[in-house]
């Protein structure tokens, strides 16, 4: 009887496509790189953290352990204080040490960079990138620059944009792009870390502001493509978007992107789906962005910390991650 049940199960699995048919050729699984985003709550300014994390400075070891466990290759970060390095190479002391911990492991070469805000003298709540250079290598712009600060124009009145709000500071955490390659003549991608307007100040007002910021961002993408000669763009980070039908989401997806958190999976301990990745669409086998065809966003829970420990020692946001195929470069 047991053998009969096993045969019946196997036959059903084949019919459903869960198991290969005998003798059928399966396409090879391409190598992959993993991309992620994480809002590290007020890193560098622990007195601004909330709840159990209030006045608790995150440790470099805890951050390194979480990144290691996540097995990511490139990580967008938000809410990070620029407190070391130079204006041309902005860094954070805790992330410098976290990279040192990671680099003690074989085959690791972690680096990081923070980007200037709209007010280039401001140092708190910056966005940036951390990457393992043994897996992905930064690529310069056509002008031989290590990154590209987007050329965005904020509206000045309702004539410029019907969502304009007097007194709004659009894109305080200014958008900047970096390009990475997975190897010579292999997949390369342009990452744009973002941290859009928070919901403080009222949902209706901040929804409109996020949509203005999304329009500013998408209008600037043509020059991003020119700067890097690349169409494989990823927009990711803490969008503060509350639902997938929010106007900002629609603006970005209509500009040619897929929202990898279209199911609104909670990424914040309060249950909100704030953290999202948008990848360029046209992902069919002959499309321009086919390396994203199998990308699916997931929330990475800490393997050892419960939610209260995670909040106290790290953040109120969890890391999100997804993988992309490494194949011959097509642009």
UniProtKB/TrEMBL annotation:
Gene3D superfamilies the UniProt entry points to: Endonuclease/exonuclease/phosphatase
Pfam families in alphabetical order: Exo_endo_phos
Keyword Cell wall biogenesis/degradation in record: no
SUPFAM superfamilies cross-referenced by the UniProt entry: DNase I-like
Matching InterPro entries: Endo/exonu/phosph_ase_sf, Endo/exonuclease/phosphatase
Domain spans labelled Endonuclease/exonuclease/phosphatase: 37-285
Signal peptide: 1-25
Domain of life the protein comes from: Bacteria
Keywords linked to the UniProt accession: Signal
Gene Ontology molecular function terms on file: catalytic activity
Protein name in UniProt: Endonuclease/exonuclease/phosphatase domain-containing protein
Organism this protein belongs to: Gemmata massiliana
Top-level taxonomy: Bacteria, Pseudomonadati, Planctomycetota, Planctomycetia, Gemmatales
């Amino acid at each position: 009887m047991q053998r009969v049940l096993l045969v019946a199960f196997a036959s059903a699995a084949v019919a459903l496509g869960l198991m290969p048919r005998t003798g059928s050729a399966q396409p090879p699984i391409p190598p992959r790189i993993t991309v992620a985003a994480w809002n590290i709550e007020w890193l560098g300014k622990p007195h601004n953290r909330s709840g159990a994390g209030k006045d608790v400075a995150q440790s470099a070891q805890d951050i390194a352990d979480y990144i290691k466990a996540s097995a990511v290759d490139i990580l967008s970060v938000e809410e990070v204080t620029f407190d070391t390095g130079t204006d041309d190479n902005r860094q954070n002391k805790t992330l410098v040490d976290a990279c040192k911990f990671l680099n003690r492991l074989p085959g690791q070469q972690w680096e990081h960079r923070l980007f200037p805000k709209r007010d280039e003298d401001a140092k708190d709540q910056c966005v940036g990138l951390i990457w393992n250079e043994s897996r992905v290598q930064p690529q310069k712009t056509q002008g031989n620059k290590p990154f590209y600060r987007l050329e965005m124009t904020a509206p000045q009145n309702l004539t410029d944009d019907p969502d304009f709000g007097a007194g709004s500071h659009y894109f305080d955490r200014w958008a900047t792009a970096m390009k990475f390659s997975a190897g010579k003549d292999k997949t390369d991608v342009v990452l744009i870390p973002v941290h859009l307007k928070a919901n403080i100040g009222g949902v209706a007002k901040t929804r409109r502001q996020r949509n203005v910021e999304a329009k500013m961002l998408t209008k600037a993408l043509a020059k991003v493509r020119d700067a890097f000669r690349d169409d494989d763009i990823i927009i990711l980070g803490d969008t503060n978007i509350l639902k997938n039908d929010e106007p900002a989401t629609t603006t970005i997806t209509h500009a040619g992107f897929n929202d990898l958190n279209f199911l609104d999976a909670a990424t914040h301990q309060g249950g909100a789906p704030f953290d999202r990745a948008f990848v360029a669409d046209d992902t069919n086998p002959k499309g321009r962005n086919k390396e994203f065809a199998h990308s699916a966003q997931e929330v990475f829970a800490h393997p050892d910390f419960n939610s209260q420990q995670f909040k106290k020692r790290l953040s109120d946001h969890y890391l999100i991650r997804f993988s992309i195929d490494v194949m011959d470069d097509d642009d």
